[in-house]
């Protein structure tokens, strides 16, 4: 599992941040890792296939609240399907990604939605459908209207993006964050980080001392 820390620290947040688990789902090569990489590093690369799952964190400040998004980037390859299933347990939000130039990936995103529907109550999870690779307009196989219609029929958020051209990527994550905050404020802030972050060095030192005393 790779760990990449986002550097955008909120400047004025005096309270503990809200912490949300966000999973990226969708078939292989639709651009899940590229969307995360664009958000966190504002860059684009030919990324190697994700093996198992990668993990990123991104701090955000939105409407005066601090948020920490724990972003789980799952592997789209079929052989990892059952593992990915484990990763979306406990998720607060899911980003369902398809490639607008690949109809099959749109159908796969719809199948992911069915799996989420089986696992979660509608109010338990925020879901956004993301049609990525809008720069491939000439090879488009899924129209904007088809994406929008599916999202509306299931009450999902919806956006089209291009990780390559940095088109609406931040907007997609902000839409998710805003909806998470809205729901959180409705139910009294249960996702605020409750304990201060663990100092891993201190913990390791404490363990070592204990071990040496044995
Ligand atoms: N043209 C174009 N290519 C993109 C875009 N986003 C990603 N790609 C390319 O698509 C390929 C797959 O991107 P990834 O981000 O690795 O896709 P993924 O969904 O994480 O793939 P898995 O890890 O296999 O699940 C790479 O070659 C990317 O450079 C985009 O917006 N436009």
From TrEMBL:
Annotated stretches, region: Disordered: 185-206
User: What does the record give as cofactor?
Assistant: Mg(2+)
Give the membrane topology. Lipid-anchor
Entries under SUPFAM superfamilies matching the protein? P-loop containing nucleoside triphosphate hydrolases
Keywords, comma-separated and alphabetical: Cell projection, Endosome, GTP-binding, Hydrolase, Lipoprotein, Magnesium, Membrane, Metal-binding, Nucleotide-binding, Phosphoprotein, Prenylation, Protein transport, Transport
Q: Which InterPro entries match?
A: P-loop_NTPase (IPR027417), Rab_GTPases_membrane_traffic (IPR050209), Small_GTP-bd (IPR005225), Small_GTPase (IPR001806)
Q: Which Gene3D superfamilies match?
A: P-loop containing nucleotide triphosphate hydrolases (3.40.50.300)
Q: Where in the cell is it found?
A: Cell projection, Dendrite; Melanosome; Recycling endosome membrane
- A Pfam family reported for this protein in Swiss-Prot or TrEMBL: Ras
| Gene Ontology terms: cellular component | dendrite; melanosome; recycling endosome membrane
Which molecular-function annotations from GO does this UniProt entry contain?
G protein activity; GTP binding; metal ion binding
Q: Which GO terms describe its biological process?
A: plasma membrane bounded cell projection assembly; protein transport
Q: What is its EC number?
A: 3.6.5.2
Name the source's superkingdom. Eukaryota
Q: According to its UniProt record, which reaction does this protein catalyse? A: GTP + H2O = GDP + phosphate + H(+)
What is the protein's major site of localization? other
Query: What NCBIfam families does the entry give?
Result: small_GTP
**Family of this protein:** Belongs to the small GTPase superfamily. Rab family.
Name of this chain's protein? Ras-related protein Rab-17
Q: Which organism is it from?
A: Phascolarctos cinereus
What gene makes this protein? RAB17
């Amino acid at each position: 599992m790779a760990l990449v820390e986002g550097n955008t620290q909120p400047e004025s947040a005096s309270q503990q941040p809200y912490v949300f688990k966000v999973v990226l789902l969708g078939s292989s090569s639709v651009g899940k890792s590229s969307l995360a990489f664009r958000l966190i590093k504002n860059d684009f690369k030919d990324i190697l296939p994700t093996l198992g799952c990668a993990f990123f964190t991104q701090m955000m400040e939105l409407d005066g609240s601090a948020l920490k998004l724990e972003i789980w980037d799952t592997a789209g390859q079929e052989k990892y399907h059952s593992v990915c299933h484990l990763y979306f347990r406990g998720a607060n939000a899911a980003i369902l990604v398809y490639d607008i130039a690949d109809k099959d990936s749109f159908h796969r995103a719809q199948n992911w939605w069915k799996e989420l529907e089986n696992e979660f109550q509608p109010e338990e999870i925020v879901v956004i459908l993301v049609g990525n690779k809008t720069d491939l307009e000439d090879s488009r196989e899924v129209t904007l209207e088809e994406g929008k219609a599916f999202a509306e029929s299931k009450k999902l958020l919806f956006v089209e993006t291009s990780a390559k051209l940095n088109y609406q990527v931040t907007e997609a994550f902000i839409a998710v964050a805003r909806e998470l905050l809205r729901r959180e404020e409705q139910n009294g802030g249960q996702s605020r980080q409750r304990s201060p972050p663990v100092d891993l060095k201190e913990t390791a030192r404490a363990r070592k001392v204990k071990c040496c005393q044995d």
